[in-house]
Design brief:
With 356 residues, this protein is α/β, with parallel strands linked by helices. The chain has 12 helices and 14 strands. The protein folds into 2 domains: 226 residues, Aspartate Aminotransferase, domain 2 (3-Layer(aba) Sandwich), CATH 3.40.640.10; 116 residues, Aspartate Aminotransferase, domain 1, CATH 3.90.1150.10.
Length: 356
């Protein structure tokens, strides 16, 4: 089976983890600091704050912007559930806006109609590694005095007009084991605001500036040096990892003819966390997936049920219809595109997909 995802673990990851084990400093320490500085450089931001996961990073970023009970946050339903859950964690309510077909990202043309006096932030998601229309979203946010929190969990290294994801609003990244840059488990917040950075650091560590003196309510969301060591090795070769993904995606797009292949909008640099095709019309996705799996090709459906259609979310936001998200949820299939996919694997994927 060609897996849909496979962590790329080399000698440098092992070396840095052993350094941590031998140092005896396993909790948050110098490796976390080094990883934060590396993210600052990649994202071009003044600050980066490490956390235990992409989900906790979202939670911390929202809290740092004083989002809470009675507030509304506009976001997309076509994403991993953590994007919406993190809003609920604060006591605020997600307001779902439908997506574009081309990028699967939130449609900025629909955002202003969703703004109410309770709206405090927009939380767009750069899905699959293609940034959303961030320029339009920032313009809307400026005109309505709203916060923008970029869910860039799948988009480390992605750019719009050469400006990195996570550098427009407050950025949030995931370092989960299958991500383009991973640490096993972990998250990162990026910002140019000294005030937001300071609040994020307090919130992730029980509200402490000085040990055992607590300035505010906080959480234990600190990353360990063991996880940071893996992330350091990964981010050190981010260019190599991204280039391989781009080459794999290019080959698939140039050779697959039986389905709708993903597009990249002008001015954007895609980092291909997922390579997602679509079966249009009434084609049987379950049958297609079975054929691919039987042929030894791993697949994924990201995501089969939009957030607004999850049972518990219906109780919160009501029974709403978002037709593009609902259509995409029935059509998408993700194929292997990670750096460990070989040329032989690519040829096999193309052959089998073109039989569908």
């Amino acid at each position: 089976m060609i897996p849909i995802a496979k962590p790329y673990i080399g000698e440098e990851e092992k070396k840095l983890v052993l350094e941590v084990l031998e140092s005896g400093m396993l909790a948050q320490g110098p490796k976390v600091n080094a990883l934060e500085k590396a993210f600052q450089e990649v994202c071009g931001t003044k600050h980066a704050i490490a956390t235990t996961s992409g989900t906790t990073a979202l939670h911390v970023a929202l809290l740092a912007h004083d989002i809470g009970l009675g507030d509304e946050v506009i976001t997309t339903p076509f994403t991993f559930i953590a994007s919406a859950n993190s809003i609920l964690f604060t006591g605020a309510e997600p307001v779902f806006v439908d997506i574009e077909e081309v990028t699967f990202n939130i449609n900025p043309e629909l955002i202003e109609d969703a703004i109410t006096p309770k709206t405090k932030a927009i939380l767009p998601v750069h899905l699959y590694g293609h940034m959303c229309d961030i320029e339009a979203i920032m313009d809307i946010a400026d005109r309505h005095d709203l916060v923008v929190i970029e869910d860039a969990c799948q988009a480390v290294g992605a750019t719009y007009e050469a400006k990195p994801a996570g550098s427009f609003g407050t950025g949030v990244f995931s370092l989960y084991a299958t991500k383009n840059v991973m640490s096993g488990e972990g998250g990162m917040i990026t910002t140019n605001s000294d005030e937001i950075a300071e609040k994020c650091r307090l919130i992730r560590s029980h509200g402490m500036k000085v040990r055992y003196y607590h300035d505010m309510l906080g959480y234990n969301y600190r990353m360990s040096d063991l996880h940071a060591a893996i992330g350091l090795a990964q981010i050190g070769r981010i260019d190599e990892l991204m280039q391989k993904r781009r080459e794999n995606a290019k080959y698939l797009t140039e050779n697959i003819s039986s389905v709708i292949t993903p597009k990249v909008k002008p001015g954007y640099e895609h980092v291909w966390h997922q390579y997602t095709i679509r079966l249009d019309g009434n084609r049987d996705r379950d049958a297609a997936i079975k054929k691919l799996n039987d042929a030894g090709i791993g697949t994924g459906i990201f995501y089969p049920v939009p957030a607004h259609q999850q049972d518990y979310m219906r109780d919160i936001v009501g029974d709403i219809t978002l037709p593009v998200s609902e259509k995409m949820a029935k059509q998408v299939i993700s194929l292997p595109v990670h750096p460990l996919v070989s040329q032989e694997d690519l040829e096999k994927i193309v052959t089998e997909v073109n039989k569908l």
